[in-house]
User: Fold this.
Amino acid sequence: MARYGRGYPVPARRVAPPVSTLPPGPLNVRVTDVGPNSVTVAWDPPEAGALGYGIYLDGVKVGIDQTGTTFTFTGLVEGRAYLIEVDAAAADGRSDRLQLQVTTPDVTAPTVPGGLTVTGRTRTTLTVSWQPSSDNVSVAGYGIWLDAQQQGGDQGGRTYTFTGLTADTAYLVEVDAADPTGNRSARAELQARTAPDMPPSTPPNLRPTSVDYTAFSAAWDESSDEDPITGYDVALDGDVVAVNQAGRTATFTGLVENSDHQVRVWAVDRLGQRTLVPAELIVRTLDDTPPTAPTLTVDAAEESITVAWSQSSDDFGVVGYRVDVDGEAVHSTSGMDFTVDGPVLRRHTVTGLTAGLEYGVRVAALDTLGQESADNTVTVGTPPVPYSAIESPVYRIGAWAGNARDAWGVDWVVEDAQGWASTPDVRPRLARLGGVDGAWAGAGQYASRVVTLSGVAVAPSRAAMREAKQRFLAVLEPREIGVLRVEDVLRTMQARVRLSDMPPPQDDGSLAFRWSLTVKATDPRRYAVAPVSATAVVASLPGEASLTLTMAGTYPQIPARMRLYGPIKDWTITHEESGTVMRAMTGSSLPADPQYSLGFDLATRQVWAYVPPEIWPVPRPGRSAVAHLPAWFMLLPGANTLTLAGQPIAGVSGSPRLVVEAFDAWV
Assistant:
């Protein structure tokens, strides 16, 4: 038994579908005629008939009910959409309305576009514009015509550009307007002409690129034109020298020095048109006057010649000097050389020469044109060595030489040489100080080099023997520092020495005596005679520049001298191979004046500040310009790269430089 009520479901009730109670409406409502201002509709009556029919236009009833089944709406607007409705009236009410959407046709064309005019023209284009047209409905677009040919479809804008036209040609331009139903206005007409084809522009930037005494060259930039440029006509002093040449340069030769010449250039295009106004240029050939020849002062040593020269003058300006020896260039300078010994003005020492020979020394002044002064070669002879070798190696201190025959005919024969060719003993260190300060870092250091030479001297006479003994005893004073120079078939080496012992010579026959001397070199290195030097120049600051010295010696630590010239601030000097960096004290700077510089002696670990002599006559200690605990370094056998870097000094221009000089050293 089913139970209903609180807590129990209530069964759903069936509801019958609604039944319309309105009377039936008209049937088959339709348009039977339509015009721009009227619409006729018709319908069929319902089966049960109707008392009358209501007619509605856009929801508003037109008049009263009518009994007929047709109706004509008049006074309508063309091109407009209307909602037409019809319902039926019966005794029990009115039926639903039957609806019909009807649009009256648009038969009125837009007005002709006005103000058709040309707004832009080139030789291949025409741009036109016009005023807007009006229409009873709307304007859908404009048709553009050129010589009766429509240019694509209708467009919405009121400007148009015709392209691909012919220069200086007349065209018929037409524009009409169209509405959405396709009604078109009459065409507005315009006669328009493209711009004429202009000749190329004057070639720009005609300029001389090189000028000599009897020749010069000129160049120019490309002309502009609507057509491609095919070439250029060139004239010199009124005579055409090139016709339609492709290049934009010209060289004129066979001219007279120190004379003016007129250059004209026209551009020519593909149509054969030529520049109306040519580019013009006046060029004067050079006056062939070389620099004046410097006056030379030459001093010769056994293996070197030092030449100094006066300043040269020139009408175009002297840019530098070249030192020649026997016709070969050995040195070039702008006039001032920066060396580790300070700036040198118009002076240079040529090394590596041979004693006792004559050399032709010349200094040529060079001007901005590459001209050089007249030949001022001076022949100078290097003094001959005061001995001739009789054996190898030759040991020499001052004017005395062992294994040689001196100028008095005495043969000095070295029978025993101790300490020169051997490696000095290693003295162990008590502490490692690194590259910061004090002695050079290492497990130990070499002791002083002691060299003992002994042998026999043979003289041509008793008198020559006596004089030879006296000369020998005067070779080196006890407190004097001399240079022991040893020359063998491979190389020449030297060391700074002091006399340790010189026993009196002992006779060994009537014309011979035995001799012996002992010298001590505190620095155990054996150095080359000629130095190795290089310079690093920083082009602009902040920036850096590097130099490389390749040391051929075998000593593990080779000292060097350095000289730093400004202008530079907060500089650093880096030995790339060891990574050691020497730095300036923060804020320290060097001016651009080359009389101000810093000198570094890597052997003694001293820094010297150089200033103009009128401020301080001698170098002063310059350690205060270097950061505390400077990272000292020495050069190594092989390549050594030193890099100078730093910051600019406000308002000061110039190129700072680092000059380094070292001597190859052997153990």
In short: The mean pLDDT is 90. The CA atoms of residues 148 and 172 lie 7 Å apart. The longest strand covers residues 81-90.
